[in-house]
Amino acid sequence: MKKDIHPQYNDDAQVTCACGNTFAIGSTVEKIETELCSKCHPFYTGKQKIIDSARRVEKFQAREAKKDEATVSKTKKRERRAKLQKEKREAKEKADIVDTTK
């Protein structure tokens, strides 16, 4: 590596969040100020709220529920179709057995 072209790396750079939380990380900047951290971010604290004025989330959830319902109905259709085919095979086998006895 060439000398004197790389920035100085600080092992204990201080990060300060708007909520008051501070912690040390490695960085080329000595002091970092941020608005959100893992202590105050809604995703990590479990207080996440979804603001949905256009009902996009509800529409998405409805589509997903419809897909799940379609999958279940397809499975039921397959089961019903397999059951009918099995019954037809059994009926045909019985008919074959009856015909051979005559």
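That was protein one. Protein two is written in the same sequence-then-structure order:
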Amino acid sequence: MPQRSKLNLLPLDLGKETIGERITRLRKERGLTQKELAEKIGLIQVLVSKYELGKLKLSAEMAARFAKALGISTDEIIGLSSNGKENYTPDLKLVKRIRKIKKLPEYKQKIILSMIDAYLRDNLPKE
């Protein structure tokens, strides 16, 4: 029979999201598909899906791989810290457009951004 621990560990609050839900949210915030994330990590899409659904437990090495691919800390993956972005999920259509803009030469990027700035300045209420 296993010996019961004599340590009095306090419960650890990692938030309401599971690790899988957190990976899903972070992946979507970055505008990545499961397949794209899998390629960055060196996995197949099915395994990313299983991690997101909680069917596979995240090892320390896989947490580090996911964190590196998503550009965040392992603490954020497991829920010990966040960058205050938990309530904000950018529109995937916008993320894809931004990626396309980033592929343009810098002078064309500046033109597009100045047009966006002018439109927003003229059409949004002043803060």
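The mean pLDDT is 85. Keep this in mind for the problem set.
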